[in-house]
Amino acid sequence: MIINTELKQNHNLFPGKVISFSQEEGKVNFLTNNEVILQVTVLKDSVVRFRYATDNNFEKDFSYAIENGSPKEYFDAKVEEHENQYSIHTNTIKITIQKDDLGTTIYDHHDNVICKDDLGFHWEQSYEHGGNIVKMSKHAPLGELYYGLGDKPMHLNLKGKRIENWATDQYAFSKDQDPLYKSIPFYIGMYEQRAYGIFFDNTFRTFFDFCKERRDVTSFWAPGGEMNYYFFHGPNMQDVVTQYTDLTGKPELPPLWALGYHQCKWSYYPEKEVKEITSKFRELKIPCDAIYLDIDYMDGFRCFTWNKEYFPDPKRMVAELAEDGFKTIVIIDPGIKIDKEYWVYKEAIEKDYFCRRADGPLMRGKVWPGECYFPDFTNPEVREWWSDLFKEIIDEIGVKGVWNDMNEPAIMEVPSKTFPDDVRHDYDGQPCSHRKAHNIYGTQMARATYNGVRKFVYPHRPFIITRSAYSGAQRFTSSWMGDNVATWEHLWVANVQMQRMSMSGMSFTGSDIGGFAEHPSGELYARWIQLGVFHPFCRTHSSGDHGDQEPWTFGEEVINITRKFVELRYQLLPYLYTMFWEYAEEGIPMLKPLVLFDQSDSQTHYKTDEFIFGNQILVCPIQEPNSKGRRMFIPKGHWYNYWTREFVKGGMERWVDADIDSIPLFIKEGAIIPKYPIQQYVGEKRIEELRLEVYYKLGNTETSRVYEDAQDGYDYTKGEYSLRSFSLTGKETEVIIEQIVEGNYITEYETIRVECIGLPFTIGKIEVDGVMVPFDTENNTLVIPKVFAKLHLTS
Ligand code: GLC
């Protein structure tokens, strides 16, 4: 029986009959008569791990995706033996295991089948490499839908597609191209509104087939490693993502400035040009917090060196930029130039830190500096060494963030674009070939960089970016989508990629605004900025070989549009920061595709354009030239058009006006949206006042939160934060806002300015904790002390 045609062989092997089972430390082992073991571990009520061994022998339990190498949580689930099967029960699900073939089925507590093996686990022995080609196939009921899997530039719903995960440098990739830079083998399935997730934690090249080969089968496989996957029960899709993120890790809070606007190009040099760019931002009053130095800052592309002709005194320059509010971020690549005079090269050679080919020679490949060797980031000692290399850049020169590029790893002028399979890696003490280490190489580089930056930037918070990533990379780094193109189609791709990344546990992402390759029209750039300010990472970047891509290169109108939207992002910083805090704290995805926002409405299941920014703002980019607006779907409930304040009913499509200076934007009724004053960079001004935009809602109480802290540093981990939770109750002639404040952080501002939108009555009386307060008729707002428990507005 051939299930994966790609593998062409017909040598599938299957588990035999179960002959015994045992239970120890949360692990339930089922042994078959042909020495297959299925090990089931219940980590939580809704999270179960399935692991298969074929020679009565598991590999060492180690995963880069999971902090400390393996999941530590478990509980001793109850196992029952029945005539033909075993069953394992948690508080939310039941798992059955067939005695004659190890077939598993997972049910919810209403006895709905959530996930059922088709052939289940099977494998082929790999004569060439040893070990197995491990495979799993699941029954796919008609109507089941699939989401997730990281950076795939295709429709959010993956049904009917075959996907491959093999981190690849795909310059100017196209829509539907696969694979790209990242490998996130986690998907979400949903059938009859019930969602579940599967994380196939295998770093080899992995494949997923969503009913492409057979319309009622979904399968996943890898040409090596173990069949080792985690099942997450929803039924709520957001809970699936949250559980996956819990397992693979959450990021720490970035410094607030990292959520500002960033400007990048390949490359800004010499120093004079860098200064011209930053000054222009201040002159035009387009807020900006970070400026990037691409590879030309280095001396002949040697990592950890400076081109002294372009940058004679980097420390002074970085300090001067900092005075003007700019944080300097530099790129770093894994390729180390083969140069006997170069200290990084010499150290690595001396310590034997470079990757080697199977028979011993060093792994040699061409990248920017020419012929290079490559540190083996899967060796903990190498990571430690690499992290220390950042001392000068960060500690002495004052750079604030590091951008990891080419870490798939990318090799030029070879068809595979990467290392050959035989390259050896330490893999944290379990030596292996590149087949196994390839997909996590980039993440281990970013991890080593993160450790270095964190160490030297302390007591500030680090900021790291990576191009390649495997599951779990979100613990260390933000990420961008690589070398996209300045086309309208790529604007669509950017929108889909960021939503997909968010639902794949990695929210802190953005695209190269305007497109990396080729040159955008002013209109395309404007539309891209309008979307980009709603992506967690917001940076303009371009390859620079086709003309400039700073906002002012497109003329007055685009300057004004850019300013308007970047200003809006800066006003929304407390909202964005709160979203990030919810992500860092609770694993809640920052962007929510509509299906994740409201899976109960089948109209959301195929939507790709509209998404929810945080919890309460609906965004829908304009993706075509010459548009005056577009049709879009408004999710169920009531919403306010942000621009016109018109109150609209959701659950249907409608036309929304959005001329070139606008983007369709809606606020959920009942939301309280916090805003800061416009600043040219984070920390430019003292925040004198927090503004709250209150969007009236009749009926049920709605809650909104505002998280704040010192915007950098680690005092927040010791209770120095401020979390305001507002609950809004709207009645026909009154509005009540109750506030609970937690944490010890004292915010700078003393007052809160409240603006009410959509009130069906004229405010007659305002009471704050029982005391009357006047209405500022001029500004149509009311100003109240920040410490209050109850604000009561009546007609
Ligand atoms: C790669 C990166 C790009 C960078 C360039 C030069 O193409 O993806 O962002 O500008 O290399 O370093």
From TrEMBL:
- Glycoside hydrolase family 31 TIM barrel domain span: 251-579
Domain Glycoside hydrolase family 31 N-terminal residue range list: 38-209
CDD domains with a match to the protein in the record: GH31_glucosidase_II_MalA, GH31_N
* Residues annotated as domain Glycosyl hydrolase family 31 C-terminal: 587-673
> Which GO BP terms, alphabetically?
carbohydrate metabolic process
- Give UniProt keywords alphabetically: Glycosidase, Hydrolase
Domain DUF5110: start-end pairs: 689-758
User: What GO annotations for molecular function exist for this entry?
Assistant: carbohydrate binding; hydrolase activity, hydrolyzing O-glycosyl compounds
- Per its UniProt entry, which superkingdom is the organism in? Bacteria
Q: Which family does it belong to?
A: Belongs to the glycosyl hydrolase 31 family.
- The entry's protein name is Glycoside hydrolase family 31 protein
Annotated organism of origin = Aquimarina mytili
Biological classification of the source:
Bacteria, Pseudomonadati, Bacteroidota, Flavobacteriia, Flavobacteriales
